[in-house]
Specification:
The complex is a heterodimer of chains A (96) and B (202). Chain A has one helix and six strands. Chain A has 96 residues and is mainly beta. Chain A has a single domain, classed as Folate-binding fold (2-Layer Sandwich). A four-stranded antiparallel sheet of chain A has the order 3-4-5-6, with no helix packed on it. Chain A starts with a strand and ends in a 15-residue tail after the last strand. The mean pLDDT of chain A is 90. By secondary structure, chain B is α+β, with helices and mostly antiparallel strands. In chain B, the strands form two sheets. In chain B, strands 1-12-2-8-11-10-9 form a seven-stranded mixed sheet, with helices on one face. A five-stranded antiparallel sheet of chain B has the order 4-5-6-3-7, with helices on one face. Classes of the chains: A mainly beta (96), B alpha+beta (202). The interface between A and B is medium-sized, with 14 and 13 residues. The structure holds zinc ion. The site of zinc ion has 7 residues of chain A, from loops.
Amino acid sequence: MLYIDCPYCGKRAHEEFTYIGDATKKRPDGAEKNDPAWVDYVYTRDNPRGPHLELWHHGLGCREVVKVLRNILTHEILGAGRPADEIPLPETETKP
Amino acid sequence: MADTVILARRSALAGVLQPGDHGANRFDGPGIHLTERTPFSVVQVEARAEAIPSLIGALESDTSTAPSLTPNQSAGIGQPRILGTGTGKWLVVEPETRDLAGHLRSVLPDSVAVTDLSHARTILRLSGRDARTLLAKGCSIDMHPSEFLIDTSRMTGLFHAAALIDCRSAEPVFDIYVHRSYAVHLFESLLDGALEHGCRVS
Ligand SMILES: [Zn+2]
């Protein structure tokens, strides 16, 4: 069982959450007509062998969006916070 | 001019909730008591961060009950009871005697969103010596008496349905709020899980 430390609800089983996606992608300005910027936002994803910043939705809880740092290789949950929070990487890990 | 029509609330469990004793016939009596609390007023109040203090102040001066800013902490003895369900978001609930949503709209600041959910929620009351064991069958929250204390409430999944579980008493007594359309599913799941303990439905 994986546990995610929701900033509102506290430590909860991951079954209460739904994966949304990559938390590092920033939506381009609505007036942006540059196709590569949109292609990057919509399609381009890193697949790091290690920590990954992602968004999860706490649907069976506070129904808020939670930012989670998860090691894709081991599934270890390394941190969680609100979407605007900076979640520091562990010392030994490389940047996602 | 049309006549005023006063609608009575119809329970989502009408015809499903059959009073009586079910399951094991225990020498020490049924381990679970299950009943529905109805009719109830359930109103959600919600504000953005900057308006939360004025929401709390206005709600406390009107109801003499301060909504708790601590997550998972409920407040009030039931007239009304105020349950936190997320950041800046509470349910105000009481046995239905008046237009609670209309009343809250008139006493809370305009910046507060007031949503009447009375028609949309079913409230089950679960008590008895085996109530914690039964809840533990259907949810991943720690139900131990040292962890799930009186006057705490948690939004969680219970038998896969989104539910709000509120601990009213250490006996234990729990109030469970569930979306109306899942009421039959949750009631049947709880009753099924309660059979080994003996279940008195009333
Ligand atoms: Zn949560």
